[in-house]
Structures are given as structure tokens and as C-alpha cells.
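in:
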């Protein structure tokens, strides 16, 4: 059920509009002035906001500017309900980024039409980006995880595989420090604490983690502290230290990891969930996605993509598939030409989008 917030100081318009939208199947919230409207927005994260312009304490323009200045709410469709019809008023609203105007007095049919159009447009935008964001998170090159209060709240399948667990369920709500060897635990947890206090913006270190069977796995780990939906959490990335596709997170690929962080934030915002609920969204997405092969890759080329995703070197791939390293190079070149991607990281995102790898 879509949530709509009505910010209107006129009680008759507010109540009548609310009752009408409820009858049309929407979950409706109301606020009697702009300041309260902003507060309610941050509490419920509505799917659409209907807002009057002339209000005491905080007018509609101030509400719109405030909503757009907050990353978590900046994408919410915003419609002005107003009796002001001067061109200057419309121009100001458009400059501030309003999505639509409804002039008072309005009919409920006109209101419903505008609401449906804006919600449909927003849904299309979300769906067009969602595949990209989910693919970035479910990255086959990098183990991605989210921890809050020292407990795992999300981990992608690559992270699960690196540590030899069978499923994310085995790791969910496990303490992060349980995976740290005693001789490294104090240092890492102290750095994590400094990051959570915003003293360190990010942490990059070489360390070791325990696998499910208590084997020591050497990894390169990158940690970034964030606040999402009001929750304080840390997004982490790991790779085996001996992997052939090692990301150098100290230079240009820091931007690549930042893109994954942004993808996590966007999925959380679009689905209006908390960080720990991200795992449910990813499971649902993976169960609904069927494999497809838009560029007609051969069976052998798909096998090579899957080997790359597992972190195998050219020699490993050649040995596994009983072909020469030169043949592996030829297949890789053909894959890049067919898919139009330029590097391995982009190829992995392509493969995830098309569900060619798990």
C-alpha cells in the first residue's frame, strides 16, 4: 500500500483529501504545518507528498527545500496544492524541483490522476535503477557485508563463499568480532570504534578472518561507517589476499567501492527498509530472476565468466576446463567484445544482471 503524506494547514481540505485517498486504497498521513510535515516525512518515508504552499511557521517552499536537502528523502515525489497561480510562483516551484502542481479548488478526480501519474513515473525510475543497484551489491568480485552494533545484518553470497559458510543465515546476527583472531581483534575493533565516532572516515587493512571451520583466511578488508534510515552501521568489503583480481582500494577503485555503498543506500531508500532488512530484498530478487543471455554467449564463455567470478587465474581456468591459457585469453577477449564491457568488474556486474552467476 502506497503511503501519502498531506501537509495542509486548512483542516477541511486536509481531512476531505485524506478521506478520499484512503477510500482509493492509499495509506494516508497528515500534518497541519510544514515543520510537522518534515518530521513526519523522516518518520514514515512516504511514497508521495502533497503539500500546501502558504502555511505558518514553514511554508511549502521551505518544506520542499528541506526534503530535497536530505539524501534519504530527496527522491520522494512532491506535489504542491495551491491557490497561487502566478507564473512567478510556478517558476519558483519548478526551480526547486517540485514534480507537479494542483491548483485550488481542485476536483478529486484531478487529484487522483496527478497522484497516480507521479507514483507510476517514480516506480518506473526505481525499477530502471534497481537492477543496477542489486547487481552492484551482489558483486562476485568483492565480499560485501553490513554490520550494526557489532552484528552482521547483511552479507552477499561472495562474502559467504569466501568464509566457507553455506548460507547467509549462518552469519546473520553473528558478532563481527567472532570472526577475528585474538591477536588482531583489539586493533581492528578499536579502528572500527574510531570510524563509528567519525574520527576515521574509512579503514583499509590486511587482516585474517576465521572461516566456518575456524580456518584462517587472509583478506584485504575495507570498512566505511554510515548512517542509513537513522541506523548507524558499517559497510565492509573483503577479498582474499591471494586473489588474482585484487582490488586496490587505496587508489581509483575506492570510487568503485563507494558505488557499492551508494547502491546499498539506494536499495534501502527505495524499498523503505532498514539495513538489516536488505538481506530479505536480495533473497527475493535472486529467487525471481531468471537467467538470460542477451549477447548469445557460448556455454564455454559462460563457464569462463563463472570461473572469473570464483577468483580463478587464467592458469586455474585453463586447468579446470582442460584448455590452454591462450584459449582462455581468446575467450575473454570475445566476451568483452560481445558484452561491450571494458574490464572485469564491469563484466561481473553484467553477469549478475543477467543471472549468469550465483
Amino acid at each position: 500500500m502506497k503511503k501519502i503524506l498531506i501537509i495542509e494547514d486548512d483542516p477541511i481540505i486536509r481531512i476531505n483529501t485524506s478521506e478520499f485517498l484512503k477510500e482509493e486504497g492509499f495509506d494516508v498521513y497528515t500534518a497541519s504545518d510544514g515543520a510537522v510535515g518534515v518530521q513526519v516525512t523522516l518518520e514514515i518515508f512516504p511514497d508521495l507528498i502533497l503539500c500546501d504552499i502558504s502555511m505558518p511557521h514553514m511554508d511549502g517552499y521551505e518544506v520542499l527545500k528541506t526534503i530535497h536537502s536530505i539524501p534519504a528523502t530527496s527522491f520522494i515525489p512532491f506535489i504542491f496544492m495551491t491557490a497561487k497561480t502566478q507564473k512567478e510562483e510556478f517558476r519558483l516551484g519548478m526551480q526547486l524541483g517540485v514534480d507537479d502542481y494542483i491548483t485550488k479548488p481542485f476536483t478529486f478526480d484531478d487529484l487522483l490522476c496527478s497522484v497516480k501519474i507521479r507514483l507510476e513515473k517514480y516506480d518506473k525510475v526505481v525499477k530502471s535503477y534497481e537492477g543496477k543497484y542489486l547487481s552492484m551489491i551482489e558483486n562476485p568480485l568483492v565480499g560485501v557485508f553490513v554490520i550494526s552494533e557489532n552484528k552482521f545484518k547483511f552479507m552477499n553470497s561472495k562474502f559467504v563463499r569466501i568464509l566457507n559458510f553455506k548460507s547467509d543465515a549462518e552469519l546473520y546476527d553473528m558478532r563481527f568480532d567472532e570472526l577475528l583472531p585474538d591477536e588482531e581483534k583489539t586493533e581492528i575493533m578499536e579502528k572500527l570504534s574510531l570510524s563509528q565516532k567519525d574520527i576515521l572516515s574509512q579503514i583499509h587493512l590486511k587482516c585474517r578472518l576465521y572461516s566456518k571451520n575456524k580456518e584462517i583466511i587472509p583478506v584485504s578488508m575495507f570498512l566505511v561507517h554510515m548512517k542509513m534510515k537513522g541506523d548507524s552501521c558499517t559497510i565492509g568489503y573483503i577479498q582474499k589476499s591471494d586473489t588474482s583480481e585484487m582490488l586496490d582500494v587505496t587508489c581509483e577503485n575506492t570510487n568503485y567501492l563507494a558505488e557499492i555503498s551508494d547502491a546499498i543506500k539506494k536499495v534501502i531508500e527505495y524499498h523503505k527498509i532498514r539495513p538489516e532488512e536488505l538481506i530479505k530484498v536480495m533473497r527475493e530478487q535472486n529467487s525471481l530472476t531468471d537467467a538470460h543471455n542477451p549477447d548469445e554467449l557460448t556455454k564455454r564463455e559462460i563457464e569462463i565468466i563463472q570461473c572469473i567470478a570464483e577468483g580463478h587465474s587464467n592458469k586455474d581456468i585453463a586447468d579446470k576446463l582442460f584448455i590452454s591459457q591462450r584459449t582462455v585469453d581468446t575467450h575473454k577477449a570475445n566476451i568483452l567484445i560481445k558484452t561491450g564491457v571494458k574490464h572485469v568488474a564491469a563484466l561481473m556486474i553484467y553477469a549478475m544482471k543477467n543471472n549468469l552467476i550465483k
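note: The radius of gyration is 25 Å.
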